[in-house]
Write a structure and sequence with these properties.
The complex is a heterodimer of chains A (406) and B (133). Chain A is rod-shaped and about 150 Å long. In chain A, α5 packs antiparallel against α6, α7 packs across α8 and α8 runs antiparallel to α9. In chain A, β4 and β5 form a beta hairpin. With 406 residues, chain A is an alpha+beta fold. Helices cover 44% and strands 19% of the residues of chain B. A five-stranded parallel beta sheet of chain B has the order 2-1-3-4-5, with helices on both faces. The mean pLDDT of chain B is 88. In chain B, β3, α3 and β4 form a beta-alpha-beta unit. Chain B is globular, with a radius of gyration of 14 Å. Classes of the chains: A alpha+beta (406), B alpha/beta (133). At the A-B interface, α5 of A face loops of B.
Chain lengths: 406, 133
């Protein structure tokens, strides 16, 4: 006989045998399922199981009980006399005694379980959606940054090309036409001069010089345009190694120039080997050509890494990145610093003794190809310092963006 | 000794300064051509004249494409100083840029295109000398 306390306990209790005949049932279960105790005792448990629970009981619940003797936290649905469903969480135990088996069921109603489950599912879905949105936002932000950098670089490129176009225009109207005009004037002079005119030789010399100048301007222009068209191949550049190559070349070009280069260990950057070689060659040969008379050409190269905004054209945009600051200083004759904005212009030689005014234009072009910056400072008699800023990582447009991502 | 009149020729091209002074010298030996390689040198020379009390040049001939200070900048600096602003200025250039022509015309400055033959050079020299008579 069932104990009184269990009969009155605030939980569902019933027991059955293996055949499903209800042996015991407590008050709370009867009340909940709206049965009288007598209606259930001796009846089959199928009376209080819904169809789904009956199938579940036969296929899972009962086999489990038979196998391991108990089953915990099983969710089933019972039904009232009027077939109203009551969700229940059940623990059950199967006991055998004298060849007879008894199954004890203890349960509590879990009307809210579905609600909790739904809420849990909804919360998880929300969290997942938020995560997705967040990721999408991050991605969009990254793409935006990348596009902004591309835009900034395109603006820089367009500005550069605009500037070049202006310079080409000046070169065509001035530097290419001038020698031609002079050829014409000197030929004319030669024609007018008498056969015994002592000036003839001078004029012929001038003729030769003008035609040589024309050839040279065209050749240098070609070199400049070649630099515009050739692709920039970024590799890891060891400047100290590059320096040795350039110094060897210069020794054959300027024999006995006694070039002395003092360079510390320069950090590795991603740059185009050939183009950087051109820059160093130009700067060092300038140091040789503009050294003080009778003195050695001494060049000191120093370098530091600094942080600089990668954006140069878009206002209010910042992306700080490592830049290599390379300073090439010589103690040569220098030039008037008032001309320092013009020395990078094509064929604009501020120095009477300089060549054709192309070298530093080429340097500027190379540095701009690397999204860097070049400046120059000089004082007559005190020497010249060229400062070059180069992004350390340069292999791709988005090198900086990638490095931002954790 | 009679003081010679001076024409200040500002041009970065040594050949052009040579042509011009030759042509002027051939026409009138009384006028000397003083040469400056660029605008800065020209202004240095003018300031020197101003401080020493020597007579001012009767004409300044300016090239347009020059380093340091180009023709336009040099012209503006000359005009900005009341001491020099009365000196006649002409432009002597090979610049085919129509903007240059319009610009200097608006300043009231005559523009001579650099010649490609001697007779035209002589004609220009003749015209230039008329500023100094």
């Amino acid at each position: 006989m069932m104990e009184t306390s269990l009969d009155r306990a605030p939980c569902y209790y019933f027991s059955s045998n293996d055949e499903g005949t209800i042996l015991e049932v407590n008050q709370m279960l009867c009340r909940q399922l709206e049965f009288d105790k007598e209606q259930l005792l001796g009846n089959t448990a199928d009376a209080i199981f819904t169809l789904a629970t009956r199938i579940f009981h036969q296929t899972h619940f009962f086999p489990l009980l038979k196998m391991q003797g108990h089953a915990d936290e099983i969710f089933i649905t019972l039904q009232t006399k009027d077939k109203k469903q009551v969700p229940v969480l059940v623990n059950a135990e199967r006991r055998e005694a004298n060849g007879n088996a008894v199954i004890l069921y203890i349960g509590i109603p879990v009307y809210n379980r579905k609600k909790f489950e739904d809420e849990l599912v909804a919360a998880r879905k929300e969290a997942e959606a938020a995560l997705r949105e967040n990721t999408a936002l991050q991605q969009a932000k990254q793409e935006l940054q990348q596009h902004a950098e591309q835009l900034d670089q395109h603006i820089a490129k367009v500005n550069q090309q605009n500037e070049e176009l202006k310079q080409f225009n000046r070169v065509i109207t001035h530097d290419l036409q001038e020698p031609v005009r002079k050829l014409s004037v000197f030929s004319n002079m030669l024609l007018n001069a008498g056969e015994n005119d002592g000036n003839s030789k001078t004029i012929v010399e001038k003729l030769l010089r003008a035609s040589g100048q024309l050839r040279s301007v065209i050749a240098k222009l070609q070199e400049y345009i070649w630099l515009t068209e050739s692709a920039t191949n970024f590799t890891e550049i060891k400047f100290n190694k590059l320096l040795m190559v350039v110094q060897q070349k210069l020794e054959t070009e300027f024999p006995g120039s006694s070039l002395i280069v003092k360079a510390e260990d320069i950090p590795v950057v991603q740059a185009d080997w050939d183009q950087m070689q051109l820059v160093l060659h130009q700067l060092l040969s300038n140091a040789i050509r503009f050294r003080k008379k009778g003195e050695k050409a001494i060049v000191e190269i120093t370098s530091t890494i600094l942080q600089k905004n990668r954006f140069t054209n878009l206002e209010g945009k910042y992306h700080y990145q490592d830049f290599l600051k390379l300073q090439v200083k010589d103690w040569g004759i220098g030039f008037d610093p008032r001309g320092k904005d013009q020395v990078f212009d094509l064929f604009r030689n501020v120095h009477p003794a300089s060549g054709y005014g192309i070298g530093l234009s080429l340097c500027k072009k190379v540095v701009e190809n690397h999204w860097g910056k070049i400046t120059i400072d000089s004082k007559p008699g005190e020497g010249t310092t060229v400062t070059i800023l180069l992004p350390v990582a340069n292999s791709r447009f988005n090198a900086g963006v990638e490095r931002n991502t954790p | 000794m009679k003081l010679q009149k001076q024409i200040l020729c500002v041009d970065d091209d040594a050949d052009d300064r040579f042509f011009l002074s030759q042509a002027i010298d051939d026409l009138n030996a009384e006028v000397v051509v003083v040469e400056a390689q660029n605008g800065l040198e020209a202004l240095d020379y003018l300031n020197d004249v101003k401080n020493s009390g020597k007579p001012l040049p009767c004409l300044i001939i300016l090239d347009i494409n020059m380093p340091y200070l180009d023709g336009k900048q040099t012209f503006q600096r000359i005009r900005a100083d009341s001491f020099f602003s009365k000196i006649p200025v002409v432009v002597f250039t090979n610049s085919g840029n129509p903007n240059d022509k319009t610009l200097f015309k608006s300043f009231g400055v005559d523009l001579f295109v650099k010649p490609d033959n001697i007779s035209y050079m002589n004609e220009i020299a003749h015209n230039l000398l008329s500023y100094c008579s």
